[in-house]
Amino acid sequence: MQQNNRAQFATRLGVVAVTVGSAVGLGNIWRFPYEAGVNGGGAFLLLNLFFVFVIGVPVMCAEFVIGRHTGSNVRSAFRRLAPGSAWSLVGYIGITASILILSFYSVVAGWTMEYIYRSLTDFCGIRSATALHDRFDTFASSNWRPVMWTLLFLLCNYAILARGVEKGIEKVSNILMPLLFIILIAFCINSLFMPDAGKGLSFLFRPDFSQLTPKSVLSAMGQAFFSLSLGLGCLITYASYFSRRTPLMKTAFLTASLDSFVAIMAGVIIFPAVFTYGQEPAAGPKLVFEVLPAIFAEMPLGALWSTLFFLLLFLASLTSTISMSEISIACMCDDLGMKRRNATRLNIGIAMAFGTLCALSFGCLGGVRVFGMTLFNLFDYVSSNVLLPLGGMLISIFAGWRLNHAVLKGELDATSRGGRIFLRILIFCMRYVAPPCILIVFLAGIGVL
Ligand code: TRP
């Protein structure tokens, strides 16, 4: 079913780099530690790993199969496989949610740019928790700087996306992803030598299930979907650029493992520092921005490390946001016949408008509350905890029950004996485990059950 003239990622390494590039981002380094901090540490980590491997990997394979088999964007993939049915709604959920995520994500990526700028221009080595806290609050609640950075970040996205799939997305990911791994390992080693490293590690690794509520179980699932870029058809879109030779199960497993590894590394970097510098693990979204500067202040050549860290966080965000934008850009190019450049302009333009609103929700729009949440929190909550699980559930039902079984098996193509056993387990999870599990956790988390 795949079309021949469609762009393709050039190499096997490229496929892994773009997929891991999409998965690894603020979700791992910024969102995971603060969610784990708010939801009690170790128990959250364990639950998150459960969701990643038991639900995330099957849903990821489902996205890969749908994308590579049809060679289409989210919207037309469902239209081709199930013409005239309501399944194409999944595509529209994906497009809407991707724009919501892109908007608030760009605000946080903008914060990383501010921190790069500060590390370069006036690194002053503050260590005290209250001073760091004030510094962050003053910045985030001001009215123009966060907006300026958000817009600038979206312009960087434009520059890469307009170049296209192979020359833009793949090239950038090939260079950035290995670099990110190396620098994270260096920071992990540094944190392990901190005086209160033991306390931090036991917070992260010792599960205390008494802390868990249905809401935190939903957060752990939402985090798994968010971090693996699942549920919106982001990976359907990317898989449409995979070649026939890409082994889908292996790629999914590798992506999930590397992604979890990065999240755990982020925890290992942050929690020892939280306890060593007397910070609060449950500080929420600003955790990374208030804790890490304290580490840099202690380190020799702190300004350099600080610049490097935030630079890499910025770059990891960039490889993730381009994957979000690609969802709607691919639809606009393929289905509406728009030029890539114009489609990119439209996508980034909309994100700029919503992104500005999210950036201001820490400042002059702080009083605007919907269901008691600021716009930033609303966008995050609705997309991660509602739309991603919903999309993920539908995608897994579609691949497990509606898609031709021979197609599913053919695309997942298990050659070895171990591979065939794995395939059976995978299809079992896709059909019988993921959909009901997602539904129950979702209903319990929003308080219906
Ligand atoms: N996974 C990315 C991160 O962890 C975010 C992301 C990229 C995403 N593309 C996505 C989230 C699609 C949901 C859907 O930072």
Task: Give the DSSP E fraction (strand runs of 2 or more residues).
Answer: under 5%
What's the N-to-C terminus distance? 42 Å
Q: Report Rg.
A: 21 Å
Number of strands: 0
Order of helices and strands: HHHHHHHHHHHHHHHHHH
The backbone outline, from C-alpha atoms, is globular
Given the helix and strand composition, which structural class is it?
mainly alpha
Mean pLDDT: 89
Q: What are the bound molecules?
A: tryptophan
For the sheet with most strands, the description reads:
none
Quaternary structure classification: single chain
List keywords for this structure.
449 residues, mainly alpha, 18 helices, binds tryptophan
Structure, described:
77% of the residues lie in helices and 0% in strands. It contains 18 helices and no strands. The longest helix is centred in the last third of the chain and has 35 residues, at 302-336. The N and C termini lie far apart (42 Å). Bound molecules: tryptophan (TRP). The site of tryptophan (TRP) has 16 residues, from helix 1, helix 2, helix 10 and helix 14.
Kindly summarize this structure in a few lines:
With 449 residues, the protein is mainly alpha-helical. Helices cover 77% and strands 0% of the residues.
Summarize the topology.
Layout: H1 12-23, H2 26-38, H3 42-70, H4 74-81, H5 88-121, H6 129-140, H7 145-161, H8 165-192, H9 197-205, H10 214-227, H11 234-239, H12 248-276, H13 287-298, H14 302-336, H15 340-360, H16 375-402, H17 405-412, H18 417-445
The structure holds tryptophan.
Residues 22-23, 25-28, 101, 226-227, 229, 232, 234, 320, 323-324, 388 line the site of tryptophan.
